[in-house]
Amino acid sequence: MRPPGFWSRPPTHPLARLLAPAGRVYGGLTANRMDRPGAAPPCPVLCVGNFTLGGAGKTPTALALVRLLRDLGRTPALLSRGYGGRLAGPLVVDPARHGAAEVGDEPLLLARAAHTIIARDRPAGARLCAASGADVIVMDDGLQNPSLTKTLALAVVDGGAGFGNGLPFPAGPLRAPLARQWPHIAGLVLVGEGAPGEATAIEAENRGLPVHRARLMPEAEPDWAGRRVVAFAGIGRPQKFFETLRGLGAEIVAERAFADHHPYRPGDWAALSALAAREGARLVTTEKDAVRLPAEARAAVAVLRVALVFADETRLSRQLAAAFPRA
Asked: Between helices 313-323 and 58-71, what is the axis angle to 10°?
């Protein structure tokens, strides 16, 4: 879905006030669900989630955490629900065989870097992770899913968006009231800068939680300076992608924003191709969008690849080592 504009405005906005009663019901039900005890997993679980609907940088955070766990001598596997895919799992994701329509876009990105399992039944997926040789499970999303007991849970927050108006869905972007979610995490990953993120960091630190600051760093290649591009994205915050391209010096002659996880159809591709031809520009999108494009379109689209870089990686590694000590 595409976040409505009033989510980023004060909670006194008429639509927010109108939907607030529904938000209290939804948020209360989600919070009660979070409080349920989970099943004991076959090996420790590191949950990477967020407090809100929409993208905050969970996938690049999960990939960065996999790398840090490997540096600590662990053998991690990634566990995802497979949002957007039709297969329920549990199954091992194979990028050479599976497509986004089958397993979801994010698992395809994860599987390029580490052994990845999708499973709507998280305990069943955890068992397959362990059977595949993992000694730590990195669960991509799932903070609000109580089916597995988490050894450590980190919440990812977009510095520019924070918690929006601070109300639960549908009145705002929160999945549950903040006061009910804080006790379920052991640390915050703050991605990027911005006043909303700083306010979140202060609240986390006041609660005694470590804040791990990070930023998404684009790859050096290709050189975007001066390139005329038509930029398109179907992610949580498309504008963030467009701003990154501009920061790299690209000349965006047109931009198209789609809903998060948008499944690109032939008509979408035809319209984008025609727009780029009219403008004499190159199409460019995100890695997550690229895996959802029709196969014939991928060679014609440039992809901006990014990686998450922590300001103090050593501090995060210490927290991981304490939570997941080697036997």
From this structure: 70
